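Researcher: Quick one. two chains, 548 residues in total.
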Amino acid sequence: MSEPLLKLSNLESAYGRVKAIRGVSLQVTPGMIVAVLGSNGAGKSTILKTISGVVEPQRGKIEFQSHDITHMDPAKIVRYGISHVPEGRDVFPLLSVRDNLLMGAYTRQDRGAVARDLETVYGYFPILNERRTQSAQLLSGGQQQMLAIARAMMAAPSLILLDEPSLGLSPKLTIDIFEIVVRVNRERGTTILLVEQNANVALNVADHGYVLENGRIVADDSCERLREKDDIKEFYLGLGDTGIRGERRWKKKKTWR
Amino acid sequence: MQLLQQLINGIAQGCIYGLIALGFVLIYKATETVSFVQGELMMLGAFLGLILMTVVGFPYWLAVPSTLLAMVAFGVLIERIAVRPILGEPAFSIVMLTLGIGYVARGAIMMIPGLGTDFQALPVPYRDQTVEIGGLMIGAERLVAVAVTVILCLLLFLMFRFTRIGIAMQAASQSQLAAYYMGIPVRQLNGLVWGMAAGVAAVAGLLLAPIVLIDSNMGFIGLKAFPAAVVGGMTSLPGAVLGGVIIGVIESLAGYTMPEGFKDVAAYVVVLIMLMVRPNGLFGGQFRKKV
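Model:
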């Protein structure tokens, strides 16, 4: 295993007095898609927000490419090469699609490279090229998600933090979007840290998975193996097999507890 | 003929309201707070211009840019040392803070011996000149006010539409969190917005000074500019200027056609009607911010 691109050690963040993540350690290997699974309120988004510097961690350390980026200004973290696709898209509604994308490249000075990347991004998402002069609020939910991902790509990041891209999308659209995410990962070598509730899709797409419950990581394995674990099957994939007179669901214990 | 004359006066006065209202809207859009110091910023701008010209002895063309520069810097400073630390507190605190800064500014000006308590005239080169257009005699200072407002609006439009920093300001006001994620320096931009608001207020002050006389209470005109911003919808820059012109014209016509006293309340009557008919203002509410 090569040197990790991103390494969190014992990260703790809180909103006021409510602890959202309680000592999370995880590693992201370059070129991989890493998924963090968990239910509502498990602290998934907080992990991403803490990495991108919007939430201040109370304890712990974030290292990116062996630099300590804990407590760093969000703008500086973007310059280091971490780009965040926020939960619920959060595109700039009144700006045109093109201006949204250019805002993604705000930290970059090289205009030529930005123009080339704009073309590349239009290549991945042709619909954005078609609608580039329209304001982003007129896009459909799926298109807004594409725009949010494309906008993050415009920063030419080495790591994309992808927060719940399937939120509010049809299963078909979810698969479409994940296909593009995988293509970006394979073709451009962009590492992706993905946060998802839709464990089924996430486990099929990602290489490595972490399971988060109540702000703690309770399982950490390659996605192939996670897919085979009984408790993951039951609690996250909904594949629990209850035989005749077998253990009843609610009685079955999670093995990590 | 007399009516047309009043109309033109109203438009010129409205442009001043509009410029101050622009400051309200700029700051409201960037930080979702209402700054009640805009009127005083205008007064300070007028006084600074006056001091530079009469005391320091700058010529007009040097006094104007230096006043603007100084006021922009002052705006940035206010944001940095007074507003930024209490952002996130209830909106009311910021209202009180800006009112307080306004009082301090007014008091400080009054303490200047000789200048502060008197009515002063700004010695602009176009003072007391009139231009005749189709039989109408129009004061040059009013024409200048309208022309400068139009040019300034055009510049602001170009800036917000086409420059990187202008688009980033729009982005930050539409979704502050997403702007942070993009690496847009939101805080510095907010400081710059305050600087712009102060600069625009100073322009208004320099334009108003030849029309009325400069005194330390001229900042109360801000109380009429606020209705202009509300009429325009509070979030729309063109709306602010249009709202200002509407209020200026109605005020002027009310003074002309109605009994004494109506002129002074006209602005507030307009706002009340506006709030009843279209609470979002002329251009407000094109999109609602998600909470």
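The interface with chain A takes residues 164, 167-168, 170-171, 174-175, 177-185, 286-287 of chain B (CB under 8 Å).
Researcher: Thanks, that's what I needed.
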